[in-house]
Amino acid sequence: MARGSRVRRVARVTGIGGVFLRSRDPVRLAAWYRDNLGVPMSEKGTVTFHWLDTATNEFPGTTTMALFAQDTPYIGEPHQRTMLNLRVDDLLSLMAKLKARGVEVLPDTEDSEFGRFGWCVDPEGNRIELWEPAEGM
């Protein structure tokens, strides 16, 4: 290869870089996520998860991007454009804790090949999916 020449790579997406929410009060909402869900948010409302730091063979740590039809009720109210899916280690205990703290917890859970799912709603009305992964996910 001649000096200065580069091998061209195909441009592509390599992972999810982040999830961003609009907020009427970012400081208050960051505190809610920190206090109720244990998300280690900074005072400014940011957090970065490094999957390589926490992944194991038993729990590899993945992030999924999925698209849904405009009229789906799955994501929440029609004005909600995004939904967080937060990986949890004990869904039923976390849902009980949230309910005891007065957080709106939706009554149904769902079991699938991917694990168990439950939902809660943050103080600004955003539906949050809580996911306890199936073994090996």
TrEMBL record:
<dbReference type="Pfam" id="PF18029">
    <property type="entry name" value="Glyoxalase_6"/>
</dbReference>
<dbReference type="InterPro" id="IPR037523">
    <property type="entry name" value="VOC_core"/>
</dbReference>
<dbReference type="InterPro" id="IPR052164">
    <property type="entry name" value="Anthracycline_SecMetBiosynth"/>
</dbReference>
<feature type="domain" description="VOC">
    <location>
        <begin position="15"/>
        <end position="133"/>
    </location>
</feature>
<dbReference type="InterPro" id="IPR029068">
    <property type="entry name" value="Glyas_Bleomycin-R_OHBP_Dase"/>
</dbReference>
<protein>
    <submittedName>
        <fullName>VOC family protein</fullName>
    </submittedName>
</protein>
<dbReference type="InterPro" id="IPR041581">
    <property type="entry name" value="Glyoxalase_6"/>
</dbReference>
